[in-house]
Design goal:
Rossmann fold; alpha/beta; 20% helix; 19 strands; Glucose Oxidase, domain 1
Length: 376
């Protein structure tokens, strides 16, 4: 057993003491929790977790190891990782290695052996907090002071820390493990297929896999691109990706979207959903502790059908701020927050949750089909 001590200090003065695994060091970030039982590798590599220390509520994490196929980006992006217990035994034929080695090689500081139920209960009661996770400084008072002085998420532009450096043509299909009901043929001549420009604000790779797998040619642009950068490529549609942090400071993204609305069909997910709302002069706000998990119920208001969804966001669109041209299409059944909108007059819609993540597992795939139909 790893006996090296590590600590998590919250800005309210609470300190949790456990054992260190992964990389050594000290990190700060907003402490949040995820209720998923599986999918820890996808969580680790989701750029939307940039600037956050993530605690898993499921008591044992790591039992199926890690592999090169299930990543959602080129590396882990979160600040730190917390589990009740890391599994010492890897039991899966697809595994390339154990979780602890993966975190160590990626430079991610991790903590185990604390009462994660007590941590999550505190975050649910008092809200997400700034924190410091350290295996090097074990002085409680110093760690709490560092947590209080840390940057947090509000007002920060974290997108610039995770966007790709240059455009690329996406070529990777969906994994055969997804078991989609139908796999579209790709025998159509390349120049005649729909062309999607995906604005990458920290995009999970399963999104362009879905677009590519449905017969689209996908060009990925950094989320800092302008409307002119997008339009010069003559796309048939524009996708707005997920990404980390507060959407309000991202003026450049909002201006880009305004320059695209009415010119090209637009589909947004997560941060892209929030940015579409902001581009239409709505507002967003910070949730008390956010939605992060693979079991969030969402109702499609057009059908009254309930979808089981994967979610990861700490901000939400303010329903009372929506202009007349935006209509709410989906609601979260846990707290009635806005989970989807559409423009009444223009071909543009978005959802707060992640239809590419297959929580249902196929409940939300119709959204990609809806976007495809808008391209005709």
């Amino acid at each position: 057993m790893n006996s090296k001590i590590a600590k998590l200090a919250l800005e309210d003065g609470t300190v949790f003491t456990g054992s260190h695994f992964g990389a050594e060091g000290e990190v700060d970030g907003e402490v949040c929790f995820n209720t998923s039982m599986t999918g820890y590798q996808e969580i680790l590599t989701d750029p939307s977790y940039r600037g956050q220390i993530v605690a898993m509520t499921y008591p044992e994490i790591g039992n199926y190891g890690v592999n090169a196929e299930d990543v959602e980006s080129w590396k882990p992006h979160l600040a730190g990782f917390i589990v009740r217990e890391q599994s010492r035994r890897v039991s899966n034929f697809r595994a390339d290695g154990p979780l602890c080695e993966y975190l160590r090689e990626a430079g991610i500081v991790a903590l185990e052996g604390i009462d994660t139920r007590a941590l999550v209960r505190r975050l649910r009661i008092h809200g997400a907090m700034k924190g410091v996770l350290s295996s090097t400084d074990l002085d409680d008072a110093r760690l709490v002071a560092k947590a209080k002085a840390s940057r947090g998420l509000v007002g920060r532009d974290l997108v610039r820390e995770v966007v790709p450096e240059k455009p690329l043509q996406w070529q990777e299909p969906l994994s055969p493990w997804t078991g989609l009901e139908k796999q579209p043929t790709r025998e159509t001549p390349r120049q005649s297929v729909p062309h999607i420009v995906a604005l990458d604000y920290g995009m999970k790779w399963n999104i362009p896999r879905h677009l590519f797998g449905r017969g689209c040619r996908v060009t990925v642009l950094p989320g800092t691109a302008t409307a002119d950068d997008v339009l010069v490529l003559k796309p048939d549609g524009v996708f707005l990706s997920n990404g980390p942090g507060d959407p309000e400071p991202l003026d450049y993204a909002q201006q880009c979207i305004r320059g695209l609305l009415g010119k090209k069909p637009v589909f947004g997910i997560c941060l892209g959903h929030q940015l579409l709302a902001l581009a239409c002069r709505a507002r967003t706000y910070k949730l008390k502790f956010g939605h992060r998990g693979a079991n969030q119920p969402v109702m499609d208001l057009s059908t009254n059908r309930v979808e089981i969804t994967t979610q990861n966001h700490g901000f939400a669109v303010d329903a009372d701020s929506l202009p007349d041209e935006l209509e709410i299409t989906h609601l979260n059944l846990n707290d009635n927050t806005v989970e989807g909108i559409r423009h009444r007059n223009l071909p543009a819609f978005s959802v707060q949750y992640h239809p590419e993540a297959s929580a249902g597992p196929h409940d939300s795939h119709y959204l990609f089909e809806r976007f495809s139909e808008m391209l005709a």
